[in-house]
Task: structure prediction
Amino acid sequence: MDIRPLRSEADYDAALKEIGRYFESEPPPGSPEADRFDMLALVLADYEAKHWAIDPPDPIEAIKFRMKLKGYSQKDLADLLGSRSRASEILSRKRPLTMEMAWKLNREWGIPAESLIRPTTD
Result:
């Protein structure tokens, strides 16, 4: 199979070029070509995570984004967190999220935990 870790931009570019052909003609599942595609995808993802990691968004920005995306109002957030004043304080950054709040937002609204437990930016 001869797939090795990517150590340079040249290695990365070559792997991108090679994996591109699989998008044009998808290999049959379980075939050696499908295995090669999977391995290329893994080494590419590993290289990208190491060289171009994307930090999760600020917790408050993540909440606002989910509210906009799903059409939720501040009242919806208040219903989830237990009070209007708490929701207002969270959105205005006057009150930090508790672990219980983060858990509810993750479970009920599907906001990634990585975003909710990250320190806020002011």
